Amino acid sequence: MSAPATDTLLTTPLNALHIELGARMVPFAGYSMPVQYPAGLMAEHHHTRKAAGLFDVSHMGQLRLVGPDAAAAFETLMPVDVIDLAVGKQRYGLLLTDEGTIIDDLMFFNKGNNELFVIVNGACKVGDIAHIQERIGNRCDVITMPEYALLALQGPQAVTALSRLAPGVEKLVFMTGGNFTVDTGTQKIDVFLTRSGYTGEDGFEISVHNDHADALARALLAQPEVKPIGLGARNSLRLEAGLCLYGNDIDTGTTPVEASLLWAMQKVRRAGGAREGGFPGATKILAALAQSTGATAQNGINTGTRKRVGLIAQERIPVRDHTELQDGAGNKIGEVTSGLLGPTIDTPVAMGYVDAAWAAVGSKVVAIVRGKPVPMVVSAMPFVPTNYFRG
């Protein structure tokens, strides 16, 4: 069992529970976080795929944007349709720099009554909140929520376990949510939750007051389907699902076009849409988008030529982050940003950036692992089919 976190690291409301459960604690995003429990990463990964895993993601930032102008204001920061998001629904978004590169990716939910609920990445939350406050704080109230923890319950049996304690959650579909009461048998706990997550599996993200986080976690872990899962399996699950990790696969050096995240840009914000542009770096991004669809870039803007792709190794050799990618002639054409042995498919998988000429599915590239060439093939993502519940 690891020692408790040092004074230099923050802790979540579940810190004592993690240590009680025998977690190996590591520094992550400024917090002491569980990387795995005694069962180990592989067992935790497979359990989440077949049953339900409970993750502590309380290091992430939660905030509320409140006011009649909140949606319109928030839309000015992202190439995403915020205004048209229906009440009770959630959407993925991208905070951008003025150069059109990615400050962070996030989730936002329309709670109605002129209020948006936003979740940002833990390592970025201080900067994100400052950026949002600076840019739109004069148009809406930006209210941080440090008094709230965040738990993720993921896996095909997550709904079975949670609906036993909070009847009605089974009626939700992917990317919807609402306020619920969890009955632990000894107390009733008010939560706000969405049916979403970071694993590719059906699941829920649950926002709960710090004072009740431990009781909620214990009630969920008491369900026969649920086991605690650490950051290690969270990473392997999200990579199999083809989902980006901020700081690895996207950052302030990448644009949404390079990152192959155009699905997050609704048509209304693209060229010819009713609310075309109007977001940071719009000129550059829309020009790159035009180029990527075969049109000619305008005004001499450098739109970039690399793309984020999925990769499958043709030998049983894991290809890790920062591994150089080459063409058959030994020319550097890119770099791996995330890579490991995919536990579900028992095959080394990765994602990374390659020159656009090599981005087509089926393209053959070479990874250089400790001086050894490992053949890889560009693959569609996700590597493991997603199991989101869409009704």
TrEMBL record:
Q: What class of enzyme is it?
A: transferase
An example GO BP is: methylation
**The protein's Enzyme Commission number:** 2.1.2.10
Claim: DNA-binding is one of the keywords in the record: no
Pfam families linked: GCV_T, GCV_T_C
Q: Which reaction is catalysed here?
A: N(6)-[(R)-S(8)-aminomethyldihydrolipoyl]-L-lysyl-[protein] + (6S)-5,6,7,8-tetrahydrofolate = N(6)-[(R)-dihydrolipoyl]-L-lysyl-[protein] + (6R)-5,10-methylene-5,6,7,8-tetrahydrofolate + NH4(+)
Q: Which Gene3D superfamilies match?
A: Aminomethyltransferase beta-barrel domains (2.40.30.110), Aminomethyltransferase fragment (4.10.1250.10), Probable tRNA modification gtpase trme, domain 1 (3.30.1360.120)
Tell me, what is one Gene Ontology molecular-function annotation carried by this entry? aminomethyltransferase activity
List cellular component terms (GO): glycine cleavage complex
Q: Which residues bind substrate?
A: 205
Name this protein carries in UniProt: aminomethyltransferase
**From which organism does this entry originate?**
Rhodoferax saidenbachensis
